[in-house]
Design goal:
Blueprint (H helix, E strand, L loop, with lengths): L1 H25 L5 H68 L11 H7 L2 H4 L6 H64 L10 H8 L3 H17 L5 E5 L1 H12 L10 H13 L1 H4 L6 E7 L9 E8 L4 E8 L52 H6 L9 H8 L1
Helix pairs in contact: 1-2
Amino acid sequence: PELGDFFTTLGELQKMVKQLVDDKKSGGGTGPASKELAKRSITKMAELRRDNRVVHDAADRLLREVEAERQRTDAVSQQLQNLQYQKIHLSRELHVCLSYQGTEGLDLISEEEFEAATTEEQRKGPRGSHDYELARLTLEMKKREEVIKSLKQQDLKRKLYEGKLATQRKFLDGLQGHLDAIHAVAEPVRKEFNKNGQMASLDKADSDAASLLPPPLYSVYYQAHAYEVAFLTNAPAVILGDRADALAYVKAQAVVTPRSPALDNSKKRRKRKHLEDNDGESLLTPHPLSVSVKIPPEEEGTPTVTLIFSYLPKLQVVTVKHSLSSGGNEKALLQDLFPNDCGLISPLAANDYVYLNPVTKQPLLFSDNATCGRAYKWAQQLGCLNYPPRDKARDGRDAG
């Protein structure tokens, strides 16, 4: 109705304006009738503006009503959707309940174990009741969840170990190439040391005697001999000892059978006792042959120094003792040629647990009388024996 009133007022105003325009065109627009019509037109214009406001107010009211109705419709739609979701959920639950076949075949925890692991309040009822079975199923579910969690952790650890093993396997596979390279580099030296023929600078007797030397003394002897030949110095290297004993020693080493790892405890105890009784003899027994190197003086009046290199097979160290042509007794002559190298203790740390004082259980010291000399570090290097460095405490005692 408000819009109808607006259009009615608009039509009346249009007619009045048209009549005013026609009167003005005909030249009669200045009469009293025209003025009255103009006043009525202005009044009608005010009525049109009023009707326009009324129409806008009605339209706003209608929009508010539509919005309120839409909100009510949305609320009803949401309730309908919730009901549909509840229906679907209840249908699924009903299907689960209808298809439930009991606890047979699920390998559940037994009723005795369940009752031992829970209290009466946790069981929530007697055996066979719904709450009882529900609590039993809940406990079983928790245990299986813990098992699954533990399985995932173990699987993660397995993957980590597999990665570590793959890395180590790759490293070990790469070692073969390094070993081949080292073998190729060492091939000339190996061939030289494996030569059966004698050196041109040695006679047959010395060459045969050198072949009976242990590898460390063999290295010392050939280095000294090569130095003498290369620099034409009067520093002869001589092999000392009974060659027949050395030959017997080599033959005895060739026929030694490896110890069986299947010895019983009684045999091991007898063996240990035998070693303890014979430590003083077997550990300090040197090789039958030794190497003597004479170092001539650079100035007249200076005595000649003679170095005697011996090898202790059980301790696997080279010992050195010296003597002066003048007959002097300079015990510290070879001491500290290198820092902290007195030669009193073994360069091989493992000997500290073998070469012991039976009373104090402390490592014994090397000397010229007991061990055919001192075990200097530089002597081990001459014999191509490279041992890991000892700790600072041991080195400090050696320096002392």
